[in-house]
Amino acid sequence: MRSKVRINIATALTLLVFIVVFVVPFYLVVNNAVKSREEAAALDLTMPTSFHLVENLQEVFAARDYMLVTALFNSTVLTVASVTGMVIVAAMVGFVLQRRRSRINGLVNAAVLMGLIVPPAVVPTIWVLQSIGLFKTLPGLILVEITFGISFCVLLFRAFMSTVPRELDEAAIIDGCGPLRLFFQVILPLLKPTVVTVIVVQSVAVFNDFVHPLYFLPGEENATVQLTLYNFMSQFSTQWNLLFMNILLITIPPLIVFLFFNRQIVAGMTSGAVKG
Amino acid sequence: MLFSRRTFLAGAGAGASVVAITGCGSGGGSGGEVTFLVDNDPNNVVATELLIEAFNDSQADYVFTMETRPGGTEGDNLIKTRLSTQDMPDVFSYNSGSLFQAIRPAQNLLDLSDQPWVSRVAEVYPPSVSVEGAIYGAPHGGSNSGGIWYHKPTYEELGLEVPLTWDDFIANAEAAKSAGKHGIIQSYGDTYTSQFLVLADFHNVAAVNPDFAEQYTANEVGFADDPTAFKAFEHVEQVTQGGLVNEDYVSTTLEQALAYLAGGEGAHYPFFSSGMAEIKATHADKVEDVGFFALPGDDPETNGLTVWLPNGIYIPSTAENQDAATAFIEFAVSAEGLAAMAEGAQPTGPYMLTDVELPEDVPTAIADLQTYFDTDGATTPALEFSSPVKGPNLENILIELGTGSIDARTAAERYDQDVEKQAQQLGLEGW
Amino acid sequence: MSTAALERPAGEVRSRQGRAGRRSSYLAKAYPLWYYLPAGLLFLVFFAVPTFASFFFSLTRWSLFDWEFIGLENFRQFLSEPQLIGSLWNTLIYAFLTSGAKVVLGMALGLLLTSQIRAQGLLRSMVFFPVLVSTIGVGVMFTTMMHPTDGLINSTLAIVGIEGPKWLANPQLALFSVALVDIWKGVGLATVIYMAGIVAVPQEYYEAAKVDGSGSWSTFRHITLPLVRPATFTVITLSLIGGLRSFDLIWAMTGGGPGFASDVIASVIYKQYQAGFYGLSTAGNVVLFAVVMVIVLPLNHFMRKAEVEQ
């Protein structure tokens, strides 16, 4: 009985610490998001004297001819396509890289590290995109996003591929699986926790990306969500209430992705462990 | 972001000219639709929306749309990138002066010297958008000025007068401080605001040495070795180390600074006259409580204002629809076009056109600027409009100075060293 | 399922028993090298070509419109920047501090959140939530919170009578303040990687340990720690490289300031880039690349060796 009480207290304490550290900061965002422009400019912690939730929402959505709506659509397409591509090509690399010792492994490992270390070269990349006719197109930007995400994904896949026993591969080959079926039907499902982690992390990264869309997909009709922040934030004047509201709104899609996959992470991990 | 692959953008890179520029990607669309690229300052956006609307209504041949870009250095890079990759919309707005020089106008822009409006432009403007006598840009909206915002009720209460010398200014700040207010507000939270005591002092430097800009470009004088120019660095030291500033000045933001000013918690704030737009937006009832005066120097006789010339509106040489672009620019500098913009956001200083007056209803502080413009020799364009040499780190060097990490001498020397890279990058002689 | 079956070497030994020919055809069949192709192609076209092209420009004075070959002048210029030494130290401090904290906290939170604790799902979501917010958003949020007098942190401290530090406004403290926020924002990802690693450890090991009567510390020391090594290496690699290269949060919060107090190499390069010194900033990238390599390559070598030995 007493130990149960102690556990509950420990849980409550943990919860409290987590709330203070991870949730309270967002109070500030929410608080300022419902203020008037005048009150929000002070950037203090006082409660708003009047609530402007609806007006601010409307204003953020309507700004620049409903740019936010276009941007949410564009960012969603960009994110889904890029992350799907990333997961498939990177998992294939991670799979072979971990399983098969070959002469080019050193090269592949070096390339992965390079990809993590070297920053992107903007202007030459534009030249490349122009020369293949993909500049200012969504497919062009998607390919660039996939490229810049590969290293991170390969690293994760390689690390967790080792948790899938090799015997499984052999059994599958003996059962007559070709390499494609082996990979897509046997291995990939077992990598679910990693896949889910990669999906969540990279979705957030692509969705929150600011630089690549700015340079590789210019134009109002091509706006992505991070660029909408600039509707309310400029060098000479910032509308803090709308800025915070915008931050709040564009955090919701990644949150949904996470809440959706959060269960999957847990489920995937346990199933992987049991089957392993 | 934790594992930041996609940083803001650490690297310029390049691919040698192996890849042929295809010239695909034009700015606007086809079929009479033309794009105007402007920076995303909210006031600018509102003004531009109305300008475009008025232009589209005034004629039937072209339909214009607006595209926005970030301002500041991010915007500089975007402009250069899009120009160099032949991807600039048919009309765009960008800085005049030193930044204009860095986009290789002769190579990238259309020469507008023969346009009908050129004769109407105020004499002071064209040099900031010209290369070797050819004019490439039209003034976009009104001018801006750098100087001191002050709180009028405080001045009345303490019986102070608008100072004409630096020493009087400091005396006023001391008086305000004794009355329990911030003598001079500083806002290093927005780093670029640290520069006004130096940049807005240029009228005083030029008053003593009219050839300063020219000599500066030729590397014959610098801030550390010109006694008048160096004073501005000493001023920063005097103000911050003398305790005249607000206590939180290192983290105060522009908005907070303007709130101090409008509410009378602080007496002075060195900034642009365009601060009025923000004051109107967030302290609408205090608009007539604030006034603006030129940053004073040593000699009351030569008191005058340092002016920031408006952005230029330019046409890239790759523009597909040059007729539309020139027609648009002509409209943008017409009384009708400027009135349309003023509907959205009032100008923050006089126009650069000889035949267009400020609207009647601008706040007193802005209307008063006209006095400087009407007095002979009482306005000087800021150094960045008469010399292409401007270092990127002035704001941070001044913050080091203002926080007491270095002294005025070191700061001036550091800045002289900082501009070297810029001069070399531009291939200027004497560097 | 036997624990032995989980050990990789067993599988390798078995396949080595076959004839060399059979082995290679087996490998080719199961793990075809063309799997590298899609990623390799993308990498080559959109990364390698632009990157190597850009290295050429580090030897030029480049305005994007034209360039002039100036040999190693950019490197001389970059290495003689007055802020270089300070920013190099800052880079090392920032990278090791943030990655160290992410390893330790990530592992601790990973263990906590895979234990029998209640409200597990909620807690996991909370830890991960900051990862979801964009850097710009986090920057704005914490700059406001860390305001010396009006900020949430110091106002709270003031209630209990503590005068909080000036955080970002104090040149000695600014870098550490940003590092703190970086850890806050990034620890969620490290935690998830650890959770995946911890859950993948087969229960049998723990059961065996329990039977042997080993205590919880010894179980952690001898079972958990070695078996989550792939996770640890991943977290170290990612966060160390990220820390050495990153500046976006620094940029959003302090811009490298006050003055130059929180400048790291990457932010110095970024400022040069912003100022239009394209050749110079490319040279800076080459230098940064070399610095990262010097630190990461030996570490990577060591980690891969440890992984193989395991």
Number of strands of chain C: 2
Helix content of chain C: over 70%
At CATH level 2, the architecture of the largest domain in chain B is 3-Layer(aba) Sandwich
Distance between the ends of chain C: 21 Å
Structural shape of chain B: globular
Write down the overall mean pLDDT of chain B.
88
- Main sheet specs of chain C: 2 strands, antiparallel
Name the overall outline of chain C: flat
Neighbour order of strands in the largest sheet of chain C? 1-2
Main sheet record of chain B: 6 strands, mixed
Any idea of the CATH topology of the largest domain in chain B?
A: D-Maltodextrin-Binding Protein, domain 2
Q: Concise description?
A:
Chain A has 276 residues and is mainly α. In chain A, 78% of the residues lie in helices and 0% in strands.
Structure description:
- The complex is a heterotrimer of chains A (276), B (431) and C (310).
- Chain A is mostly helical.
- Chain A has helices at 2-33, 37-41, 53-99, 105-117, 122-131, 138-161, 166-174, 179-190, 192-207, 211-216, 225-228, 240-275.
- In chain A, helix 3 packs parallel to helix 12 and helix 7 (166-174) packs antiparallel against helix 8 (179-190).
- Chain A starts with a helix and ends with a helix.
- The relative contact order of chain A is 0.14.
- Chain B has two domains: 17-141 and 310-359, D-Maltodextrin-Binding Protein, domain 2 (3-Layer(aba) Sandwich), CATH 3.40.190.10; 144-307 and 381-426, 3-Layer(aba) Sandwich (D-Maltodextrin-Binding Protein, domain 2).
- In chain B, helix 11 crosses helix 12 (275-282).
- Chain B is globular, with a radius of gyration of 22 Å.
- Chain B starts with 32 loop residues before the first strand and ends in a 5-residue tail after the last helix.
- Helices cover 72% and strands 2% of the residues of chain C.
- Chain C is flat and about 70 Å long.
- In chain C, strands 1-2 form a two-stranded antiparallel ribbon.
- With 310 residues, chain C is mainly α.
- Chain C contains 15 helices and two strands.
- In chain C, helix 4 (73-79) packs across helix 15 (278-309), helix 5 (84-114) runs antiparallel to helix 12 and helix 14 (265-274) packs antiparallel against helix 15 (278-309).
- Chains B and C meet through helix 2, helix 18 and helix 19 of B and helix 3, helix 9, helix 12, helix 13 and helix 14 of C.
